[in-house]
Design a protein that fits this description.
- By secondary structure, this protein is mainly α.
- 80% of the residues lie in helices and 0% in strands.
- It starts with a helix and ends with a helix.
Length: 192
């Protein structure tokens, strides 16, 4: 198990290095590369979870469902996180939403205003939220097959929330960022 964890950690570190390199190149980055890199970064969660599945179900029949559930949850959460905090990531040296919004041959933007125009015009925030919903739906299905009803309901709710974000992004690009920025004010007003 220690060797498996070490390998998973190594894959995650390599994925983060690849991520940094992709942010600095000119040109487009595919959504497939993005999801594979995002999943590789999360791989350290898999060995302990699959080991636990082996303890609960020594026959190993549940392992593929547990893997599908973990994959769906981690990718759904990662994609939504990347969607919501892309401006912070950009300020810290690179953001997937900016890399995914570039066209072939286009150099990475150097200023936030330029990055915003690029991201909002591309529709990548809506596409990312829709992809997150698909991953959450897969997690809900796998959790249901495992009879993990609470997890299945949560993943389905997250899928619906992600679809709602996608819809709002399609009709008003940048909505998710505005909603996030206004959330503390809304909590304060509701609390009064």
């Amino acid at each position: 198990c220690v060797v498996v964890l070490w390998c998973a950690r190594t894959v995650a570190v390599e994925a983060m290095a690849m991520e940094r390199a992709l942010f600095s190149i000119a040109g487009d980055v595919s959504f497939d590369v993005y999801t594979r890199c995002s999943l590789a970064k999360q791989r350290t969660a898999f060995p302990p979870s699959l080991a636990l599945a082996g303890v609960v179900d020594p026959t190993g029949a549940a392992a593929s469902r547990v893997d599908a559930c973990i994959t769906g949850v981690t990718l759904g959460l990662q994609l939504m996180d990347d969607l919501y905090d892309w401006e912070e990531d950009f300020a810290n040296g690179g953001a997937w939403m900016v890399a995914l919004s570039r066209r072939t041959g286009q150099t990475p933007p150097s200023a936030l205003a330029e990055a915003r125009r690029c991201v909002f015009a591309s529709g990548i925030l809506a596409r990312t939220a829709e992809a997150a919903a698909i991953h959450f739906e897969r997690a809900a299905l796998a959790a249901g097959q495992l009879e993990a009803k609470t997890l299945s309901r949560w993943a389905e709710q997250e899928a619906q929330r992600a679809l709602s974000v996608s819809s709002r992004e399609l009709s008003s690009p940048g909505h998710a960022l505005r909603e996030r920025a206004l959330a503390p004010l809304l909590r304060e007003v509701v609390a009064r």
